Amino acid sequence: MEGKPARRIALRAAERDLRLLGPGAPPSRVWTFGGDPWPVIRVRKGERIVATLHNDLPEHTTIHWHGIRLDNAMDGVPYITQPPVEPGTRFTYDFAPPDTGTFFFHPHCNEAGQVGHGLAGVLIVEGDEATPFDAETLLVAKDWRLDADGRFLPLVTDRGAARGGTFGTLRSVNGAAPARHAVPARADLRVRLLNLDSTRILEAGVEGAEAAILAIDGNSIPPLPLDTWRMGPAMRLDLVLRTPAAGATARLVDYNVAEPFTLAEFAAEGEPLRSGPLRPRALIPSALPEPDLGGARALAFELGSAAAAPPLAAASPEDALSRDLAASLCLGERTFWAINGASWPIDGHRMPPPPLATLKRGASYRFLIRNATPHPHPIHLHGHTFKVLSSSRRRHPPYWADTVLIDAKERVEIAFVARRGDWMFHCHILEHIETGMMGYLRVA
Ligand code: C2O
Ligand code: CU
């Protein structure tokens, strides 16, 4: 890293007041990295980022750079890739994102609590546009779980954690009620949509404009006309919309609810910039290592429920003590879920369980992941961009992603080239992380 000019960023994790219920209503005590409501970092591909996390929170934290193929030491998983950043201390992340796209970052401890209170940020790596778009809009969808006075309600409930997750009470886009965005008429608008909710699965579609998908989790695909696209927590979508004529409005809508929910309105104004139908141009793809499907080793993973008695690594009284300590330090207390029969133990960060699998660096792997539960799970692998090859439920051309939504009883196959390190492999419904649906791969 030395020698490269660096983008220096200070991220101060702290409690702050934000008026989530609206301008006149009481403020909510959110946790943020100092943005309003979250920072948006924009860099060029390959630009070096030196980001110092200052922890002014009452509990330890870290930053995980979701979807970035960085060195394992910068991956931000407490006890696995780095010591937790204790209150009053700091840690510096130093890396150069190798791929363009729409990414984000978040803590990797007490995720339901910390991310649930708002702790996250957006990372945009530029350099994928051969010709610039006429306009761009960034939309971050996240719900908040608040009472009528703006106080946070419990972010983890046994009922939610054991099912599809605990839902928020208030939906928001960019931390506020969905907005009307003024956009140029008959223009090509790039929309970056991030689902940063802890729980909610969106089904994104566009009304009143032609639209195409340009990238999934930041990875370019040959433009795909948008019907609707399902996005679990952590998933991102880059779209292009041909905005309507001046005076008309297009809408981005979530259909995965009883009453379709408008995430954004695009109000077209001014002279038309383009004519004719939308001819989406592909984003420049990143140079991702292509797995050798013929020579790949195949491994099977089953997403399931936890065994009746939650496995505790703690056996002796001292272990029980350290387990209580770990629990008090923000780890989960209940176990509902498992991967291949193994649940991430509640004290797993302090005493990590064995890896789910040991892989060889540079070798290609095919993972067949089967969801044996009645709930969908968005499954994320750290430090890699994998190819989603096929699904037992739907037909799609293969595409690159870092998180794949697997529906109840669905089987999905992914493939990738293994990178050295201990890489977390988990569901991104945050309560599921904390109640067992997490493990890691060791790539040696
Ligand atoms: Cu965005 Cu381990 O996750
Ligand atoms: Cu899950």
What does this structure look like?
The chain is globular and about 60 Å long. 6% of the residues lie in helices and 42% in strands. The chain has a 6-stranded mixed beta sheet, with no helix packed on it. It is built from 4 helices and 30 strands. The two termini are 23 Å apart. With 444 residues, the protein is mainly beta.
Question: Any chance you could write out the topology, listing elements then pairs?
Answer:
Layout: E1 6-18, E2 28-32, E3 40-44, E4 48-55, E5 64-66, E6 90-95, E7 101-106, H1 111-116, E8 121-126, E9 135-144, H2 158-161, E10 170-173, E11 180-184, E12 188-195, E13 202-207, E14 210-216, E15 219-225, E16 229-231, E17 236-242, E18 249-254, E19 261-269, E20 297-305, H3 317-328, E21 337-339, E22 357-359, E23 364-371, E24 377-381, E25 386-391, E26 399-401, E27 403-406, E28 411-417, E29 421-427, H4 430-434, E30 438-443
Parallel strand pairs: 1-4, 3-8, 9-12, 11-19, 20-23, 22-30
Antiparallel strand pairs: 1-2, 4-6, 5-7, 7-8, 9-10, 12-17, 13-16, 13-18, 14-15, 14-17, 18-19, 20-21, 23-28, 24-27, 24-29, 25-26, 25-28, 29-30
The structure holds CU-O-CU linkage and copper (II) ion.
Residues 377, 427, 429, 432, 437 line the site of copper (II) ion.
